[in-house]
C-alpha cells in the first residue's frame, strides 16, 4: 500500500461515497455532533458504529472524564518494546503527554503534527506512514501504535491503510476520538482489543513466540482489566485447587503475553467493559466469566462460575471454596467498616469495591461508574441492588454529587470533584483512583484491605469539623475577593478569626 491517493479525495475509501468533509473550521471547537458527522462523511461510519455497539452511551451522552485517548496511550506506554505515536491537535497532544508523564510514563511519546494544508492534501497520512517507517526497528520494537485523535478521525485519516508490518514490526492504527469512545477506561479496550486481534490472527497462521517465563503447567484463566499487582497472585492461589492457574492480565505488558492470554482455558472479565477484548477471546473459542473473587459471596460465586466454564468437577470446586472462604469470612469479620458511604469512579472496578464494602458491613447507598452496563456487570449489579444500593452506570458528575447530597454519607469515595465537594462540606472523602484502586481487592488480601483506610478516613470527621469551623467564611462572600458592590462590614469576620486563634493552641488545629 505505497501509492495511496490523498484520503480527502479518495471517495473509493468512503463507505457512502459522500463528498469530502469540509476542513475549514473543523477542530476541537466544532463540537461533538459536527465532528461525528464529518467522520461519517469521511468513511469512518464502520468504526463509529462498532464503538457505538461496544461502548453504548446513555442514559446521557458521556460522563465527564479526561480525554479518552489517554486510556489507549497509557496501555501502549506500559508495554515493553512498543512505540506510541499520536496524531492530533497540538493542544490535545500536549495534554496527553503531560498526563502520561505525570503518571510516570518515562517513555517518549511520538507526535505527527499537522496543519490545515497537510490535513486537506493527504500529506498527514504520508507523514504518519513515514513516521511508522522511521520507527519500525525490529531491534527496538515489537509494535508501533498510531492513535488518531479527534480531528484526524473526523477528517477520515485512514490508519487502516497503513502497512500491517514494516521490517517485521507490527503497525497498529487506532482511532480514539472523544466523540466515539466515551471514557478513557474504554479506550484501554480499544487498543488492547486491536492488539489481541492481531495476535489472534498471527496465532492462527502458525507458531508464535513463547511466554517469557515458564509455562504454568496447568490450564490458565486470562484476567481482563488492570488490577493491583498482588491480585493476580491471590487469584492464582484461589484457582490452584481447581487445577487452574492465573494467566496474563490484559492489557498486557508485552506483546508475547497476548498469545499467552489467548491460550487460556477461559477468560475472566474482572473489569466488565472490555468489549473488544471479549470479542477476541470469544473468537478464539474461549468462555468469558464476569465478576471477580471479592468478599465471601463474590468469591464463592466466582469459583463456581470459573469451575463451570472450565468443566471442573464438583469435588474440586468445593475444595477450592473450602480452602479460601473461611479465611475471607474471618478477615471480613476482623476488620468491619462502620459508616454510610457513597462511591463513584471511572475505573470499572466500582461495583466490585461496592460489594467488598457491603460485605465489610458498610452502609453503602450509591455506586456510580462512568462505565456502561454490560452482561458482565449484571451479577454485581443484581447483588448490590438486592442490598439496597443504587447503582448508576454512565454516572455523570451531577448524579454523583446529587447522591452525596441525598445520602449525606460519613465518607464519600469518588473522583476529584466529588472529593472536593465532600471536603467543602466537612465530610471525609477518599480518591477512588489513588487510594482505593491502589489496594488489593481479591481473596483474603482484599477482604481486609479497605477497612484500614476507610475507617481511618471516617474517624477524621472531627478534624474536618474543626477545620471547617476555623476556615468558616474564607473564600465566600466578601472574602472571595470578588466584589460586585462596595464591600461593607468586614471587621466582624477578622475579629472572629483572631478570637478563634487566641482560644486554641496551634498544635490543636490539625493540618490539611
Ligand atoms: S483528542 Fe478529542 S477528546 Fe481528546 S483532548 Fe483532543 S478534542 Fe478533547
* Sheet having the most strands: 5 strands, mixed
SS elements, strand count: 14
Structural class category: alpha/beta
Strand residues, percent? 5-15%
- List of distinct ligands in this structure: iron/sulfur cluster
* Termini gap: 59 Å
* Strand order in the sheet with the most strands: 2-1-3-5-4
- Overall geometry comes to flat
| Integer average pLDDT | 88
Low-confidence stretches: 1-25, 506-512
Cα Rg = 26 Å
**Helix content, binned percent:** 40-55%
Number of helices: 21
Question: Characteristics of this structure?
Answer:
13% strand; binds iron/sulfur cluster; 21 helices; 46% helix; single chain; alpha/beta; 14 strands; five-stranded mixed β-sheet; five-stranded parallel β-sheet; 512 residues
List the helices and strands and how they pair.
Layout: H1 32-41, H2 45-54, H3 69-77, E1 82-87, H4 90-102, E2 109-112, H5 116-121, H6 123-135, E3 143-148, H7 150-154, E4 165-166, E5 169-175, H8 184-205, E6 220-224, H9 230-239, E7 245-250, H10 256-262, E8 266-269, H11 275-283, E9 287-290, H12 295-309, H13 314-334, E10 340-345, H14 350-359, E11 363-369, H15 378-386, E12 390-392, H16 397-407, E13 411-414, H17 416-424, E14 429-431, H18 432-436, H19 443-458, H20 461-471, H21 491-503
Parallel strand pairs: 1-2, 1-3, 3-5, 6-7, 6-8, 8-9, 10-11, 10-13, 11-12, 13-14
Antiparallel strand pairs: 4-5
Amino acid at each position: 500500500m505505497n501509492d495511496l491517493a490523498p484520503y480527502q479525495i479518495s471517495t473509493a475509501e468512503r463507505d457512502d461515497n459522500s463528498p469530502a468533509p469540509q476542513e475549514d473550521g473543523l477542530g476541537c471547537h466544532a463540537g461533538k455532533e459536527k465532528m461525528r458527522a464529518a467522520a461519517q462523511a469521511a468513511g469512518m461510519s464502520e468504526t463509529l458504529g462498532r464503538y457505538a455497539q461496544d461502548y453504548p452511551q446513555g442514559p446521557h451522552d458521556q460522563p465527564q472524564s479526561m480525554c479518552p485517548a489517554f486510556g489507549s496511550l497509557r496501555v501502549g506506554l506500559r508495554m515493553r518494546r512498543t512505540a506510541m505515536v499520536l496524531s492530533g491537535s497540538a493542544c490535545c497532544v500536549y495534554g496527553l503527554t503531560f498526563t502520561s508523564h505525570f503518571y510516570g510514563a518515562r517513555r517518549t511519546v511520538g507526535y505527527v503534527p499537522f496543519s490545515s494544508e497537510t490535513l486537506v492534501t493527504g500529506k498527514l497520512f504520508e507523514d504518519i506512514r513515514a513516521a511508522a517507517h522511521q520507527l519500525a526497528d525490529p531491534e527496538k520494537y515489537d509494535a508501533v501504535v498510531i492513535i488518531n485523535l479527534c480531528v484526524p478521525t473526523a477528517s477520515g485519516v485512514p490508519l487502516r491503510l497503513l502497512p500491517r508490518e514494516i521490517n517485521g514490526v507490527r503497525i497498529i492504527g487506532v482511532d480514539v476520538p472523544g466523540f466515539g469512545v466515551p471514557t478513557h477506561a474504554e479506550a484501554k479496550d480499544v487498543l488492547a482489543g486491536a492488539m489481541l486481534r492481531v495476535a489472534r490472527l498471527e496465532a492462527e497462521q502458525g507458531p508464535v513466540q513463547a511466554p517469557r517465563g515458564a509455562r504454568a503447567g496447568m490450564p490458565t484463566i486470562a484476567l481482563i482489566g488492570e488490577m493491583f499487582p498482588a491480585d493476580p497472585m491471590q487469584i492464582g492461589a484461589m484457582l490452584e485447587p481447581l487445577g487452574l492457574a492465573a494467566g496474563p492480565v490484559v492489557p498486557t505488558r508485552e506483546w508475547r503475553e497476548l498469545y499467552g492470554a489467548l491460550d487460556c482455558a477461559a477468560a475472566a472479565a474482572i473489569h466488565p467493559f472490555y468489549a473488544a477484548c471479549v470479542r477476541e477471546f470469544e473468537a478464539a473459542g474461549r468462555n468469558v466469566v464476569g465478576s471477580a473473587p471479592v468478599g465471601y459471596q463474590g468469591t464463592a460465586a466466582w469459583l463456581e462460575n470459573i469451575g463451570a466454564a472450565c468443566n471442573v468437577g464438583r469435588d474440586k470446586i468445593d475444595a477450592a471454596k473450602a480452602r479460601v472462604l473461611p479465611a475471607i469470612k474471618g478477615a471480613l469479620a476482623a476488620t468491619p467498616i462502620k459508616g454510610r458511604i457513597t462511591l463513584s469512579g471511572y475505573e470499572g472496578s466500582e461495583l466490585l469495591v461496592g460489594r467488598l464494602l457491603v460485605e465489610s458491613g458498610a452502609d453503602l447507598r450509591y455506586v456510580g461508574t462512568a462505565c456502561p452496563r454490560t452482561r458482565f456487570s449484571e451479577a454485581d449489579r443484581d447483588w448490590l441492588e438486592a442490598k439496597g444500593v443504587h447503582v448508576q452506570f454512565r454516572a455523570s458528575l451531577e448524579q454523583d454529587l446529587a447522591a452525596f447530597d441525598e445520602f449525606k454519607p460519613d465518607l464519600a469515595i469518588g473522583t476529584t470533584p466529588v472529593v472536593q465537594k465532600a471536603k467543602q462540606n466537612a465530610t471525609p472523602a477518599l480518591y477512588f483512583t489513588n487510594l482505593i484502586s491502589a489496594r488489593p481487592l481479591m481473596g483474603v488480601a482484599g477482604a481486609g484491605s479497605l477497612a484500614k483506610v476507610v475507617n481511618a478516613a471516617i474517624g477524621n470527621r472531627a478534624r474536618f469539623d474543626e477545620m471547617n469551623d476555623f476556615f468558616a467564611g474564607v473564600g465566600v462572600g466578601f472574602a472571595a475577593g470578588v466584589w460586585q458592590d462596595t464591600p461593607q462590614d468586614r471587621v466582624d469576620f477578622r475579629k472572629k478569626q483572631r478570637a478563634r486563634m487566641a482560644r486554641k493552641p496551634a498544635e490543636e488545629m490539625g493540618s490539611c
